From TrEMBL:
It comes from Chlorobaculum tepidum (strain ATCC 49652 / DSM 12025 / NBRC 103806 / TLS) (Chlorobium tepidum). The keyword Secreted does not apply. It comes from the Bacteria. This is Uncharacterized protein. Keywords: Membrane, Transmembrane, Transmembrane helix. The keyword Transcription regulation does not apply. The chain crosses the membrane at residues 12-34, 46-63, 84-107, 113-136, 143-161, 181-203, 215-236, 242-264, 276-300, 320-344, 374-392, 398-415.
Length: 430
């Protein structure tokens, strides 16, 4: 059984998602790089909004739905609705850009309110179609459902941030509603989605499937619960609590990185070298860096009230930037590129979710040339990402700016590389 949708239409809307999402990633990286090179405060302030408002919403509203529907086909995919979602997200992106450019925070609040309404539609459908028992039965679906909930909360953060900036002295909006808090909250749904994918398409396929199910079920409570509790202790200013939770999560990330590395090695030996898995390993490596920088961030933020600026000691702001960019351009972006290089060819191959449901989406769907070029692109994007992180420490603005431009160029090349593969043109790589 597959979701009721036209095969050609599903191919079309998934391809539209691919083009728009990669373009947004490239624009965000380009704007950030140009902002550094031109020392332009507007561009520097805008580029994270482009990523989170644009890619953050599209990834959960569309891509996450493909993953969830592949497990529970009763969650139908409506291509017309998904096309509308893309239009509304792009509209919100334009609204936020104008708001930042001319100083209209109420327009930012309106964008957040609109996105809350957009996210509420699939969330309501998920909660009314699937029972709690069904959601909890599938470990990966727990992750996929909660990332929609977290996205709704992130857009609430954008709404309240706009109101706070418009009425800074009203005393109603809490002190912890800041730009940094919005970006932090927006990263959580993306991270949760990747965790669910890792279980469904990596650990779940190992010989020790039952052990993997139990461990990822436990990791769900640790990761999601840890994130929620971490927010509480941040607001309380509890230094010990922040350190304990961050170390617990870091140890979990280390275990994920090691075990996924073992899985990748075994897969490459017994099957073939799939670039998507290499992208996801790179993403996990950056997640480890994110966790390490996060611990340092907490250490140097001791005694500083959450919501203050700078959020940590001024001479250690490079740690804060290294932490955020390791998460965005490393963990989140590389992981989603890997996920897209697995899921989208599967959809293009059959025009449905058939391969995701009962086939082998990790099969060799892409041509050898496409995969080789993806590996080369991964090498370049890793160098660019590391150069950006190191530049925050060294203060080399030229390298930092060029790193962003190179990162954007590689993202666009990866888009071209994928869309020019035969499977995207004929539904078959041969």
């Amino acid at each position: 059984m597959t979701p009721v949708t036209s095969k050609n239409t599903l191919r079309g809307i998934s391809r539209t998602f691919l083009v728009v999402s990669f373009t947004i990633i490239a624009i965000a990286a380009t704007v950030g790089g140009l902002g550094v090179l031109a020392d332009n405060a507007f561009l520097l302030k805008l580029h994270p909004y482009i990523f989170f408002v644009g890619f953050g919403n599209l990834a959960i509203l569309l891509f996450n739905r493909y993953l969830t529907s592949s497990i529970y086909p009763e969650l139908r995919i409506d291509p017309a609705r998904q096309r509308l979602f893309i239009g509304l997200v792009v509209l919100a992106l334009v609204m936020v850009t104008i708001a930042v450019a001319v100083g209209l925070p109420l327009l930012k609040a309106a964008a957040g309110l609109m996105l809350m309404g957009v996210v509420a539609v699939p969330l309501y459908e998920l909660l009314t179609t699937l029972s709690v028992a069904k959601i909890w039965r599938e470990v990966s679906v727990r992750y996929y459902i909660f990332d929609v909930v977290f996205l709704l909360n992130a857009n609430l953060g954008l709404f309240t941030l706009g109101l706070k900036e418009a009425f800074p002295d009203n005393g109603i909006i809490p002190f912890f509603v800041t730009q940094s808090a919005y970006f932090l909250g927006s990263s959580f749904p993306l991270s949760i989605s990747v965790m669910g994918f890792l279980y469904a398409y990596a650990w779940r396929r190992t010989d020790k499937m039952e052990l993997a199910r139990k461990l990822f079920s436990l990791w769900f409570y640790i990761f999601v619960g840890g994130v929620l509790f971490f927010l509480v202790v941040i607001l309380m200013g509890n230094y010990l609590g922040m350190m304990l939770i961050s170390h617990l999560l870091t140890f979990g990330v280390m275990a994920l990185l090691y075990t996924f590395g073992v899985f990748l090695r075994n897969y490459f030996r017994s099957n073939f070298a799939h670039p998507a898995l290499a992208f996801m390993l790179g993403g996990l490596a950056f997640l480890f860096a994110t966790s390490a920088f996060g611990i340092l961030n907490i250490y140097y933020a001791k005694g500083i009230l959450f919501g203050s600026y700078p959020p940590i000691r001024g001479d250690k702001m490079w740690i804060y930037h290294a932490h955020t960019h390791s998460a965005l351009l490393g963990w989140i972006t590389l992981s989603f590129i890997g996920m897209i290089y697995i899921v989208l060819p599967s959809i293009q191959k059959t025009g449905s979710l058939e391969l995701l449901q009962a086939g082998d989406p990790l099969g060799q769907l892409l041509g050898a040339g496409t995969m080789n070029r993806a590996f080369v692109s991964l090498s370049i994007i890793l160098v660019a990402g590391v150069a950006i992180i190191v530049s925050f420490f060294s203060g080399e603005q030229l390298v930092l700016g060029i790193g962003g431009i190179v990162y954007a160029a590689v993202a666009l090349y990866l888009l071209r590389n994928l869309t020019h593969d035969p499977v995207f043109k004929t539904g078959d790589k041969s």
